[in-house]
């Protein structure tokens, strides 16, 4: 279940930056993004479950698979958003979410994405955008496994839950503040 057929002209990006609910909520709002699926990537177990991944023993990261139209939003802009909405300087953690499943990782789908991701990380480091070194891993494409249905559109379906209010909503607000004209209304 690595890559379903996508609409001609669309491209795929896969990012992991902590809990997939946060990333999914933001990327669903980006103009040019056609779909966002929460799931798992980078591990050694086929068809892992949320419980297995949360144990930290499968090697998977919680990720989002983004299908986007590069004529409307390019990969570089997606990378900029990715680095805006998570802390790429903490190894295997985002806030209170701790473990290798919450690592900061980019799964490059081709050589262009690989080089673009490495270039952005280098630029951010040179510009000292973050107070510490970026630890985001850039890896080649790996099998993607969609998360269970209850994890899809999680923020949209559970925005009143405390985790969504205190963790997800601030990331959505940060994105909207930085890109006030680039989100779907």
Automatic annotation (TrEMBL):
Source superkingdom: Bacteria
Functional summary from the UniProt entry: Has an important function as a repair enzyme for proteins that have been inactivated by oxidation. Catalyzes the reversible oxidation-reduction of methionine sulfoxide in proteins to methionine.
A GO molecular-function annotation: peptide-methionine (S)-S-oxide reductase activity
Protein name: Peptide methionine sulfoxide reductase MsrA
Top enzyme class: oxidoreductase
Active site: 19
Family recorded in the similarity comment: Belongs to the MsrA Met sulfoxide reductase family.
Domain Peptide methionine sulphoxide reductase MsrA stretches: 12-165
Keyword Oxidoreductase attached: yes
PANTHER family to which the protein is assigned, alphabetical: PEPTIDE METHIONINE SULFOXIDE REDUCTASE, PEPTIDE METHIONINE SULFOXIDE REDUCTASE MSRA 2
Coiled coil: none
